[in-house]
Amino acid sequence: MPQFSSSHLNQVVKAVFCAAGATPTDAIQIADILIANHLAGHDSHGILRIPEYLQSILDGEIDPLARPEILQETPTSAVVKGNWSFGQVAGNFATDIAIEKALAMGVSAVSVVQAAHTGRLAVFTERAAAKGVMMFMTIGTVDRPMTAPYGGAAPLLGTNPIAITLPNQDGPHVTLDFATSAIAAGKIKVAKAKHEALPPNCLVDKNGNPSTDPNDFFDGGFMLPFGGHKGYALAVMAELMSGPLVGSEYFPGVTQRSGIFMFAMKASLFQPMEKYNQALQKSIKKIKAIPPAKGFDEVLLPGEPESNMHQKRVQQGIPIPQDTWAAVRAAGLSVGVDIDTLNIDS
Questions:
Q1: Is the pLDDT of residue 335 over 90?
Q2: Which one, out of 161, 219, 268, 288, has a CA that is 20 to 30 A from the CA of 281?
């Protein structure tokens, strides 16, 4: 499997999206986020998404020149209309508004409507943490229904991810970020590209039979919620918070998509930042002091695996499956860019 440096892949992404009509500023944002996902070890939200996004442009689901805007706001809230700009662009725009209001007022809540696919939510919640702001973020169904409700025999929900990040001044930010389905749809795409089987209890085929074949998902199969009724309940909350709560149904588009809900809080709201960080480190040390169970090297905090992978991939490069590279190359050629012959700066 070929490996590429993060800077190499970053330049590939920028070249393709500039050729597809994005402004250089937006192309940089998209590239930075897709490659940050690779560095964190989440290849399901990296360059694999390029063909999907280019097709969305052709289908009118993404307007490469659109700009997100604030529809209404108060000192502690805002409704952001993405105008079907790139999800990464709308996500950054809304996150920065939430950060600014939380720092000024202590807390903030932001609704995002007409937002295209944003990808991994931790990119945005960790963007807030870097400014000393805790952020909670969730999205509901943003594409075709692909996950069955608990006890249901047909798909109704999306992967409906949830993310929370607490700032950590002395180490990796503490980040929860997961799909409420048993596996993320992007990870099924990665398994398909690598010709690998899926874990059990994640997927059923179109006839409702358990399957580990990623191809069954693309042939009418659907996912199950993780943890049975518990994952399903979280998925429903994500659906309702990013749909009815944020008002996304009043802003239809080419496809019916839920919105995004963000809640942000200044980490120093209840006590000075120094005291917050001291208390955080005390809690972290208690967790890390637990001896590892058999088969484990240490107890890790949420977000630590991604931080460790980031360090590894910065040094060793990012592996890209041949099938993924071929698909991205074909997508690039469709907009006049040959990613194999680009003049990449060293």
A1: yes
A2: 161
